Amino acid sequence: MSLLKIDTPYLDVIVDYEYNYTKSHTTLAVGRALTDGYLSFTAKTRIKDDVTGQVKTGIINIPKLKLMSDLSMVLG
């Protein structure tokens, strides 16, 4: 484990992180042949308020979503 401590406030820092995953994984592909209809999409994200600087939880909800191309996810 590496620790990066930066004592200067309001400093823009870019960290390039790379990790070789050696355990098994499953690739899940959802394509148009499997889903001819519609899907729903719900997700949570964290948003920082521009005025107060407070981090809030944002919920994205798309009740009717149609895939225009294949969707590929790697789980593991």
Question: Could you characterize what this model shows?
Answer:
The chain is mainly β. It has a domain at 36-75. 0% of the residues lie in helices and 41% in strands. It is built from no helices and four strands. The chain has strands at 26-30, 39-48, 55-65, 71-75. A two-stranded antiparallel sheet has the order 1-4. It has a two-stranded antiparallel ribbon with strand order 2-3. A hairpin with a 6-residue loop joins strand 2 (39-48) and strand 3. The two termini are 21 Å apart. The relative contact order is 0.31.
Structural class: mainly beta
The rounded Rg comes to 19 Å
Overall mean confidence score, pLDDT: 80
Tally the helices: 0
Order of helices and strands: EEEE
- The outline comes out as flat
Oligomeric state of the chains in view: single chain
Low-confidence stretches: none
Q: Which range does the strand content fall in? A: 35-45%
Largest beta sheet: strand ordering:
1-4
N- to C-terminal distance:
21 Å
Give the helix level as a range of percent.
Answer: under 10%
The profile of the biggest β sheet is: 2 strands, antiparallel
The overall strand count is 4
